[in-house]
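Re: the 267-residue chain
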Amino acid sequence: MPTVIETKKIDNSPTEVENETVRPWSAKATFGLTFLLFILYFIISIISLMVGAGIEAASSGVSAEGAQAFGEKVGHDLALDGDFNAINYLVTALCLSPLIFYFARRRKVTTAAAYLGFNKRPSKANFINFNLAILGYFIFSYFASDALGIETPQMMIDIYNTTDYLFLLFIAIVIAAPIFEELLFRGFMFKGLKNSPLGVIGTIIITSVLFTLIHGGQYDLNVLAILFPLAVILGLSRQRSGGIYLPIYLHFVNNLYASISMYLLMN
């Protein structure tokens, strides 16, 4: 009589924990990690300011009694110093960008680069259409600024006036800022929020609002109102192109245009 061998089917389907790690970060986790990045940005900036003030105090030979008052004054001056702002931004971006990639890599849904949108380049049609969109935005911002009587923010004038190494400021504003900010808003946040109940429209609105608000320390409400449509264009370009290259490029073009305008104004 033949022997019957029982075979047990092995279940290779992913467990609940494994399923969780192959999904994008949830909206709650995305907001939490983004908030953590904001806190770290603030901490790094404060440390940079303290180090800069300490170096100034040590080189000036200030007494212990007057160190606090001197430090406060130097700290205020450094906050408006172009060279310090450029170096501080570059240091912060270099510290936090790897952390964004680390957060993206923690989700095994894809590679970190793909999670952030580096896996797809824009089509020719998208590239042309959004170049026209950014040109339209420049025209809109010019007439809107004129209608609202918006002048160049004094803070930006002070930063340019106190810059001894213009190339550093150029690198920070035109190159580092588009890459770092798009990594965060149209890269990390966009991926997590888009796949949540918020959907595409909610994601574009929320990332655009947050992007606008982080510039609140530089501009007044009128300027922020003009900045918001730019953020929406960046969000739309992320969705339509399927990647982050187009938002980075458009952000670069905008900051280059603004930097050249400022340079011509100051000279």
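The radius of gyration is 23 Å.
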